What we know:
This protein is mostly helical. The protein has one domain. It is 70% helix and 3% strand. The chain has helices at residues 3-26, 40-67, 75-100, 119-146, and strands at 69-70, 73-74. Strands 1-2 form a two-stranded antiparallel ribbon. The radius of gyration is 24 Å and the shape is flat. The chain starts with a helix and ends in a 6-residue tail after the last helix.
Amino acid sequence: MKLAEALINRADLQRRLNALETRLNNNARVQEGETPTEDPMALLSELMELTLQLEDLVTRINLTNSQTIEGDDTLTGLLAQRDIRGNELRILNSFLDNASSVSQRYSRSEIKVLSTVDVSELRKQADALSRELRELDIRIQALNWATELLDK
């Protein structure tokens, strides 16, 4: 199985676990004399089975990520770079949105609010960071589809 397929399966297992949580909570209590719509013990059994499958899959994904090397980086390193760059870009864009917002003045006597940075220059840096992030994501996706998932 390719790493990309394992990632799709992991997302599916996580969705199924979230749905199972809702089903369990919906069947945790009933009025006296009523029966639950689903057997809570069967749901708990399914929960245990799904969590074991997810644990195995996540372990294998992490092992594969740490042992897959591309250039001077492991896939784990590339994923960390993507997460950090994405967070940096999000914060920078939020800052630039605030720095570039225009304050309306209704008369010359009102206080003028100015940006503390050169917004256009920082937008260029944000665009370059965004491009770097896209290129990094392409590298990661290519590795995901080219790499076989390792066994424990």
